Amino acid sequence: MSKTGYSRVFFYLLLGIFLTGSAVGQTVIRVGAFPNITHPQAMIGKNNGWFDKAMGSGVKIEWKSFNAGPSAIEALFAGAIDMTYIGPNPAISGYVRSNGEALRIVAGATSGGAALVVRNDSGIWKPEDFHGKKVASPQVGNTQDVALRAWLISHGMKSKDKGGDVQVIPLANPDQLTLFLKKELDGAWAPEPWATRLIQLGNGRLFLDERTLWPNGDFITAHLIVRTEFLKQRPDLVKNWIRAHVELTEWINGHLPEAKKLLNQQIAKETGKALPDAVLDESFGRMKATYDPLRGSLMQAAKSAFEAGFLGRQMPDLSSLYDLSLLNQVLAEKGKKGIQ
């Protein structure tokens, strides 16, 4: 081969290395998250590179952004992501739809952060005032929708579609605010920061902080789930991620002012708009970061979803939904008590 030929081969080799970049020799892990305050570990970790540092130079993290749980579950089913931060009800439905095969909960992420808000001039002051009213939830069968329906049943009421007189309306959170201002909606069971937005911007009033319905005020809002196949194939990667997740959770709780700033920076980066400081502070005050998946609250949420008719004719067996072995290994290494 001539010198020109060798030069051309060498050039294309260099070009190939340049185009593939640092991905050469790296393991890729694909992680889903939503740009909201109930996914603080993901938002902060993306912003400050926490997970990149923890996973090391041999691992490339590909973040995937989702706006709702069902789309994240579909991506997991398709093998497009390996793990995701997600709410309890989409995780339950994904597990049930796959006959317990597709996913496992490996750690908690947040507790709290949902409330029932009513319009100040709605005439609602006590539970029975909800008769004949219009109340929104973000999506039929989602976590807040199930909580709302369970609360109505506990106070002797039902939604119109179940033979009652309370009109439960599935409505995206921004649209809830619009209808509050138009006085076309009486209340909403909303996650943060939308509950706070309804209060501060929509002439709303806090009627019920959902934390008051749970022991010690703790109920799961988001957790980390992993595709079962990936968990079996790469437990080392999952364990390293969980270790970083636990450490970041502790950092968040110990550095709230800085954590909220980084969180808001990332939300602004992904959505184009930061949360007002007043909204961020009040909404974050109703939730906390946690690595405990709060199994008891999820099981109660599943029971409520079943009673509301969202999980079929028979209560599903959720006995294999959790795999906390790696989380407990990490906690043991840190001298902390394991989680059942």
Helix content: 40-55%
Total strands: the figure is 11
Strand order of the largest sheet: 2-1-3-10-4-11
Content of β-strand:
15-25%
Q: What's the number of domains?
A: 2
The geometry reads as: globular
Q: Which CATH class of the largest domain?
A: Alpha Beta
What is the element string, with H for helices and E for strands? HEHHEHEHEEEHEHEHEEHHHHEHH
CATH fold type of the largest domain? D-Maltodextrin-Binding Protein, domain 2
Distance between the termini: 67 Å
Could you walk me through the main structural features you see in this protein, from its secondary elements to its overall organization?
- With 340 residues, the protein is of the alpha/beta class.
- The protein folds into two domains: 223 residues, Periplasmic binding protein-like II (D-Maltodextrin-Binding Protein, domain 2, 3-Layer(aba) Sandwich); 103 residues, Periplasmic binding protein-like II (D-Maltodextrin-Binding Protein, domain 2, 3-Layer(aba) Sandwich).
- Helix content is 45%, strand content 19%.
- The chain is built from 14 helices and eleven strands.
- It has a six-stranded mixed β-sheet, sandwiched between helices. Strands 7-6-8-5-9 form a five-stranded mixed β-sheet, sandwiched between helices.
- Helix 6 crosses helix 13, helix 7 packs parallel to helix 8 and helix 8 crosses helix 12.
- The longest helix has 20 residues.
- The chain starts with a helix and ends in a 7-residue tail after the last helix.
- About 4% of the residues have low confidence.
